[in-house]
């Protein structure tokens, strides 16, 4: 909470309360006929009586000498200035901000909601993908080996294995969490890219007659493998 205090003026001892940094103030007035020896109460800081016009102020429902109402850290006089109350102690704005956690991205104090990931604090607007800069507040995310934040799509695009045929990353389709990667001859394939190099038949170990029959590093179906073997055999026979 941010507050503003004013010194006593005439017969008033007043304090202005600012509920929010840019909010409207509400004035609390204590009426007392002024006399030179009129005491406003005991100063919370020094324990002495607050006596005389223009010598005191109220803040946090307590009475202070104006000279005693200072920042608990830097001792800046706070009469007429914004201040923060923390554990019933007054702080100037700069010292209060120094008590707050700082965003690990922009290094500025976090005044409102804190997001935490990998043990670090973030402003919600600073918690973004390192690749596309999309906000990840409330969105699934992941991290790489160096703890950099990624959205799921960019993580897959960056780190997923790439298909030997189309060179694109093998990653889940939008809205899905998993995908299938075919591995053959120490190479990776999309399911639809795993085809016979000669006839284009989509291969699958689960379909009858569509298994892979590799030859000299080539991905082939059974029929095309047989044709190549026959061609090689015929050439060898002819050469003899």
UniProtKB/TrEMBL annotation:
GO molecular function: metal ion binding
GO annotation terms (biological process): cell-cell adhesion
Entry GO CC: cytoplasm; focal adhesion; stress fiber
UniProt xrefs under SUPFAM superfamilies: Glucocorticoid receptor-like (DNA-binding domain)
Domain of life assignment: Eukaryota
PANTHER family hit by this protein: ZYX102 PROTEIN
Chief place where the protein resides: other
Classification via Pfam families: LIM
Subcellular location: Cell junction; Cytoplasm
Record InterPro entries: Znf_LIM
Domain LIM zinc-binding positions: 41-100, 101-161, 162-231
Protein's name according to its UniProt entry: Lipoma-preferred partner
Similarity remark: Belongs to the zyxin/ajuba family.
Record gene name: LPP
Keywords, alphabetical: Cell adhesion, Cell junction, Cytoplasm, LIM domain, Metal-binding, Repeat, Zinc
